[in-house]
Amino acid sequence: xxxxxxxxxxxxxxxxxxxxxxxxxxxxxxxxxxxxxxxxxxxxxxxxxxxxxxxxxxxxxxxxxxxxxxxxxxxxxxxxxxxxxxxxxxxxxxxxxxxxxxxxxxxxxxxxxxxxxxxxxxxxxxxxxxxxxxxxxxxxxxx
Amino acid sequence: xxxxxxxxxxxxxxxxxxxxxxxxxxxxxxxxxxxxxxxxxxxxxxxxxxxxxxxxxxxxxxxxxxxxxxxxxxxxxxxxxxxxxxxxxxxxxxxxxxxxxxxxxxxxxxxxxxxxxxxxxxxxxxxxxxxxxxxxxxxxxxxxxxxxxxxxxxxxxxxxxxxxxxxxxxxxxxxxxxxxxxxxxxxxxxxxxxxxxxxxxxxxxxxxxxxxxxxxxxxxxxxxxxxxxxxxxxxxxxxxxxxxxxxxxxxxxxxxxxxxxxxxxxxxxxxxxxxxxxxxxxxxxxxxxxxxxxxxxxxxxxxxxxxxxxxxxxx
Lengths: 143, 315
Description:
Chain A is of the alpha/beta class. Chain A is 38% helix and 16% strand.
């Protein structure tokens, strides 16, 4: 139990990245099992509230992945997402969250190899940073 | 400033008597000498109470959201940009509005006035160059530039972008050399220093939501802080909850904030929450070249996209 194993919340878009995760699975590509996948209809569906929620509950890293620009099932969802994520990423760094806790990627459903590679990269980066200490709500939530 | 007041009264009486509007939203003298309060004049007689001075810190666009009647409204340069955003976001129709634009020379910082006073302030007079603070047994004159609100020092649009009538001749726009100096200062710190900086900045916050209620952009029927299923942010004054609140509030304003300063002026604890919103303004200007509320046919930065937007941060 000496080595730190991070918990990473992963948002995958239904049409591309989730398919890529599936392909990586059936192709038996190896990557560490440190992430929990949440399937979303589109990367544009991922709200900053969801990402902050993950950090508030103690996630060591968050990774959001969607279709390549131009390939969105809903035509433009990932274009809007790109602007949103860019501003969010800057803001999180601005308040003092370490660079490398939040990751984004475009992975198509044919790129099982890229999925495994990015997964490995994300997990390695977060492991190096160590356990998250900032933005965690330690007290119980009361309504 | 008296000239502005007279002109605003004159225009308001005219449009009220002609039946062009049902109400004029403006300012009147507050009960405290250094505050002016929002006022709705519904008759020519009531229009006599309208004023404009360096204490008109509130953003009146907050009061036109979803109105069904015809409204006259007094707007400064920054407020007029919020009005544009409101029209774009279908919160009010242009036809419903009669806009009285005020070419603005800046507002006086509430705290700066209080620090200068040697007792209770009974009146603050402003002639666009000097401000005279009067109170119990004292009278002080200061240059207006010395007590300006910090957002007025970096103002990019002092003249209204949209108006039906102006309350005075247009003023010269400011020449700003280093618009985002305060944000750059914070960005230079290390991650831990920034974390501590914001912890310190928000340590006094009591979560009264005055900043949210003062903001014309915050018009959601249910604010995320009031949602309970799912609950995105706790209700306590715990530091994580406070940071989550300010962080998300700023993010909701990203690409829409005009830096009017109503949030800071409304804060009873003098928290500088514009450090958050200004970061979003800086990003939207630098990354997308988008300034909020400058044109009626340009949607906010996060509500549009370009094929070649920055992509380097994505694997």
